[in-house]
Amino acid sequence: HVQLVESGGGLVQPGGSLRLSCAASEDLLNIEAMGWHRQAPGKEREMVAETVSGGTINYADSVRGRFTFSSDHDRNIYLQMDSLNPDDTATYFCYVRILERHGLRDGGGFYTEDYWGRGTLVTVSS
User: Fold this and answer.
1) What is the pLDDT of residues 67-95, one digit of tens each?
2) Do residues 80 and 70 touch, judged by C-beta distance below 8 A?
3) Which of 86, 32, 81 is nearest to 60 (CA)?
4) If I label 30, which of 11, 42, 79, 110 is the partner at 20 to 30 A Cα–Cα?
5) Edge-to-edge order in the sheet of strand 18-24
6) What gap in Å lies between CA 104 and CA 121, rounded to an integer?
7) Residues 6 or more apart from 125 whose CB is under 8 A from it?
8) How far is Cα 107 from Cα 102, in angstroms, rounded to an integer?
């Protein structure tokens, strides 16, 4: 069972930077997608940055040019956040979508499984 743990959140002043990290409990194989989402108080969860099937990185318009997504050997996921503003205040979640396969008794078909971290809080305030 894959577990993801985020770290790096905290309090930062407007204009500052933070680097979020997400560590997987094991090497991740057959990753279909990975990225970061966030949820601000009173707002719906939104995609921040993600990549699908190893393709290009998609950024939310609100963070493009300020945030940078990266990963390391299929085990660690990062989000570098620069020029932070109060609107970036939110709980940030990392996620990974992995292609799995049923056992022979279940037909051996493929399916995807999503794994989410518990989140790390980022507060941008003076």
Assistant:
1) 999 998 778 999 999 999 999 999 999 99
2) yes
3) 81
4) 79
5) 4-7, 18-24, 76-81, 67-72
6) 42
7) 11, 13, 14, 86, 89
8) 6
CA distance 103 to 40: 39
Q: What is the pLDDT of residue 23?
A: 96
Helix/strand/coil for 14: coil
86 phi and psi angles, rounded to 5 deg: -55, -25
- CA terminus-to-terminus distance, the chain: 40
pLDDT digits (tens, 9 = 90+) for 92-120: 999 999 999 888 888 899 999 999 999 99
Angle ∠(59,64,70) on CA atoms, nearest 5: 60
